[in-house]
Predict the structure of Protein-L-isoaspartate O-methyltransferase.
Amino acid sequence: MTSQRTRERLIRRLQQEGIRDERVLEVMREVPRHLFVDEALSHRAYEDTALPIGYSQTLSQPYIVAKMTEALRQSGPLEKVLEIGTGSGYQTIILSQLCSQVFSVERIKSLQRKAEQKLRQLSVRNVRFRYGDGFEGWPGYAPYDGIIVTAAPEDVPEKLIDQLAEGGRMVIPIGQSYEQQLVLLTKTSTGITQRMLAPVRFVPLLPGAV
Ligand code: SAH
């Protein structure tokens, strides 16, 4: 169930759903998603579906991971990316293969630790992890060329906009539970432009680290 054929089927499905970025498809073909869920769920790892990772959190659906990553990369490869909501670390490892440096913030300590360990086991070395509140971003390494937020706030956090480089992009689900829009924001010299990408359903971005 975790065979190359099963993975290939997922990649074809992503293509059918409109994912065009060859590099994103290539990386998603290579990265073993089944290692990011409990063994009991690994047979479902290559279905195009979100899966539970404990603490009422979920590993995003592959289509959404692909769509967000593709949107971030639309104007070319990225150097420095900030991720809010490390969760399982699956989106993190995808980014690590496509960007020079990834900075990832998570508010649940044990998820953060587990993801950090997993990426170390997989010999990923260009990711820095932080346990903390994503509403604050990670000012120490700002500005970022890309920011990806994998939990939904009701409004775009100002501090994240501040930490985006000029010309940088942010992909973020915005809205209340069950009715969010995935939005692509671009910071230009004259302000912020916004484009709606898709209706989505993410877990909420919650304040404070626990
Ligand atoms: N990208 C993850 C998705 C995990 S679900 C994956 O593919 O596995 C969203 C994650 O955002 C959860 O782990 C949740 O704990 C985290 N989160 C929610 N609010 C946060 C905040 N304010 N700061 C940092 N992380 C947050």
